[in-house]
Amino acid sequence: MTLEIKWLGHSWFRITVDGVNLDFDPLSKKYVKKLGVGEELGPSQKSDFILVSHSHGDHWDLETIRSLSGPQTVIVAPRKPANRIGEDVRVIEAGHKLTFDKLSLLAIPAYNLRKIYHRRGKGVGYLVTIGGKVIYHAGDTDFIPEMNTLGKVDVALLPIGGRFTMDVNDAANAAKAISPRLVIPMHNRDTDPKELARLLQGFQNIRVEPMVPGQVIELKDN
Q1: Of 82, 101, 117, 151, which has the maximum CB count within 10 A?
Q2: What is the pLDDT of residue 43?
Q3: Please, what are the domains in the chain?
C-alpha cells in the first residue's frame, strides 16, 4: 500500500492512504499564500481526519478546518484549540489513544525543555498508524526523552527551526533516536531543510526528504 505525503508548508501535511485523507495542522489561506503554495484543497479533497497539535495560530485555522470538513470528518485537538474549533472535536491529551476503523493514534508529549514557548501539557505530537504504516508528527517540540521510546516509525515529521522548537542539530539527533524509514523536516523558518539531510548522510537506513510547499512524495511498501 502506498502512502502519499503532501507538504503544504510549515507543519501542515496531508497524508493519503487508500483513499483516506489526514491533515495535520492546517493553515489559513493567507499563510499558505505567504508560503507560495498557490493551491487550495477543493471539495473533492475533504479530510477524513484533522489533527491539531496545539493552540498557536500558525498550526490551525478555523476557516480552513471548516473548508476541509465534511459530515464524517473527525477532528482531534488538545483542549484549548478544541474549545475554539467547536463542539464536534475529540479532545486529547498526551498519553491518550484513539482508535477508529481506518487508523489509530496516540498523543505524544510535545514541549520545550529550556524555553517557555511550548509548556508541557499544552500541546501534543501524534503517532498515527494507518494502512500498516506509522507516522510521527512531532508538533512544536524540542528533542525530548519521549522520542527514545516511540517504537517503530515509518515517517517522522520533525521541526528544525530552532527558535520555538528544536534546531536542525537536535532534529538530527531526534531522527537517530527514532530511526524512521523516512524523515521530513518542517517548521524550518530560516533553516535550510537540506541541512538535516547533510547531518544524516552517514545513516543510510534513514531517508531524508527536504520538501518544498506543494510537493508530493510517496512511501511504498517494502
Answers
A1: 82
A2: 45
A3: 3-210 (3.60.15.10)
